[in-house]
Amino acid sequence: MSTLILLLICSCASQKYKTIDFGRFEITVPEKWNKYERKGIDSYVGGMITDKNDTLNFDLGRYSGDVSTDFPMVYNEETLAELSNRERKLLPRTKHLITEDWSSEDIDLRDYLKYDVEYDTIACFRVKIIRPKNKGFGASGIYIDSLSGIKKKYDKTKFNFYGKFLSEKTQTEFIKALKTLRFEKYCE
């Protein structure tokens, strides 16, 4: 009897998945995540809404940027004022530094970087995977420098897919989903 109850609990808790086809690529995600589309100006953009109502955005095109410009989390009065309300609210739970003149102090800026960066291969591409060092503060996602083109800036097709301020669970599910990306057109 206890074995039967355990099997029922495990089967109810198991995650179900679906594959979403965005035309230029496919991704396998938790069943409750939904696709959304937007009208891009110079690239193909869209994304997904998670079961927790987080928005995950992608940008595929010539001007798609790397979202992980890693400025250290060292602030003065002016740069502190530039943070969004959400960032200011979350800041006390992060490793950061507030100083008047960081250039004159003996500070190792690497101690305050915003992201952990990892390189991997997804489909047939080398990708940069980012996660915030301070859970939930910043973006989580990937960047691919060139899906096509001859590696010159003016003819590359780049790709990024990221979400901001994700819970640890959603971030884990998202990174897992990103590793299922398939780019049939680009990986022939």
Structure description:
The chain has a seven-stranded antiparallel β-sheet with strand order 3-4-5-11-10-9-8, covered by helices on one side. It has helices at 2-13, 77-81, 85-90, 168-178, and strands at 17-21, 26-30, 34-37, 43-49, 55-61, 74-75, 97-98, 115-122, 125-132, 139-148, 157-164. The model is unreliable at 4-9 (pLDDT under 50). The chain is of the alpha+beta class and 188 residues long.
Summarize the helices and strands and which ones pair or pack.
Elements: H1 2-13, E1 17-21, E2 26-30, E3 34-37, E4 43-49, E5 55-61, E6 74-75, H2 77-81, H3 85-90, E7 97-98, E8 115-122, E9 125-132, E10 139-148, E11 157-164, H4 168-178
Parallel strand pairs: 6-7
Antiparallel strand pairs: 1-2, 3-4, 4-5, 5-11, 8-9, 9-10, 10-11
